[in-house]
Design goal:
The chain has helices at residues 6-21, 49-70; strands at residues 28-32, 35-39. By secondary structure, it is α+β, with helices and mostly antiparallel strands. A two-stranded antiparallel ribbon has the order 1-2. Helix 1 (6-21) packs across helix 2 (49-70).
Length: 71
Amino acid sequence: GMADGPELDALNRTVLAGVNARQRVLLTGTTLRTGFVLRICVLSFRTHADRMDACVEDLEASARDLLDRAD
């Protein structure tokens, strides 16, 4: 629900830092025309579903942490 711009870029960078701080998966980011976005890059055909599940869990946890701080 947030418009593109500096606030969304900052939010995405904070989520990225939160995910990477957990040290289970490593996400990267990139800048597109619309701003800074998160990237998931699976490089190995041997990547198992549990790694992708861990990534989703860490994204959710990072988002929850942000919401908890906002309250």
